[in-house]
Amino acid sequence: MTYLHGQHVRANGIRQHYLRYGGRGPVVVIVPGIVSPAALWDHVGRWLGETHDCHILDVRGRGLSESGAHLDYGVDACAQDVLAFAQALGLGPYTLVGHSMGARIALRALRAPGHAAQRAVLLDPPTSGPGRRPYPIPMDRTLAMVRAAHRGEAEALLRRPGQAAWPEELLVLRAQWLATCDERAVYVTYDDFHQQDMLADLACMTVPTHLICAGQGNVVSKQDVQDMRKRLPGLQVDRLMSAGHQLQVDDFAGFRECLARALNPPAQP
């Protein structure tokens, strides 16, 4: 049992909520995706807490973190949240792991001078941006899930044919926590996916960076990997062929192997 607690902290001027696991070992901060509150990563936290001091964030507008029309949901504000969170908790050196939107937030955060991150792991980040192909997961599909959750109908929607098959426990949890997601944040995030240049952020990385991309879903194509390596030649890459965009659900065993490898790279000779 590695779960320790869920807590709030005031950082970057807002209430931020997080889940903590383990409490010992190297520090890891996980930033989830566009409509993935921290609770949907509980199974990852419980595993990772066996070897690491793991913190999973509710990004603003999701889960139990602050939400509302008064907030800026842009990538810059979210990136500052992550940096302020780490500073408020006095985390010291940490590895920043971001999934999807969370990877874009991580890239922007680590452009800031003086951060304490010592490593970054990018999980299937959207590679869309100015002059690049669109993010392949339509905004309408994401909004439909959030709106169904607000009506209390998410579980029925998630069980329809054509929806990604999630284990029963996680499907029920997803339906529950989707209702905490602010629709306004979805609009802003999709705008940022297409207007912000993640490759420019990647080119500024100064810490070892590991990319884990899905073998299905085409969020990160082979050409995208080539483009990313041009900007960051030292980028380490794994592709989990058995999984789609939700790698941590589609093939949890394979995901664990990839993430463990990224967090514990072999020593250089």
How are the SSEs ordered, and which strands pair?
Elements: E1 3-11, E2 14-21, E3 27-31, H1 42-48, E4 53-58, H2 75-88, E5 94-99, H3 101-109, E6 117-123, H4 139-151, H5 154-158, H6 168-178, H7 183-195, H8 198-203, E7 209-214, H9 222-231, E8 236-240, H10 247-250, H11 252-263
Parallel strand pairs: 3-4, 3-5, 5-6, 6-7, 7-8
Antiparallel strand pairs: 1-2, 2-4
Helix pairs in contact: 2-3, 4-6, 4-7
CATH architecture: 3-Layer(aba) Sandwich
Q: Round the mean pLDDT to the nearest integer and report it.
A: 96
Strand order of the largest sheet: 1-2-4-3-5-6-7-8
Give the strand tally: 8
> What is the helical fraction, as a range of percent?
25-40%
Q: CATH superfamily assignment?
A: Alpha/Beta hydrolase fold, catalytic domain
The span between the termini is 36 Å
How would you spell out the order of helices and strands?
EEEHEHEHEHHHHHEHEHH
Number of domains: 1
- Helix-strand makeup class: alpha/beta
| CATH topology assignment | Rossmann fold
Write down the overall geometry.
Answer: globular
Q: In angstroms, what is the radius of gyration?
A: 17 Å
What is the top-level CATH class? Answer: Alpha Beta
As residue ranges, the low-confidence spans are none
Task: Note the main sheet.
Answer: 8 strands, mixed
Number of helical segments with 4 or more residues: 11
* Beta-strand residue fraction: 15-25%
Please outline what is shown here.
By secondary structure, the chain is an alpha/beta fold. The chain has 11 helices and 8 strands.
Key features?
269 residues, alpha/beta, Rossmann fold, 11 helices, 8 strands, globular
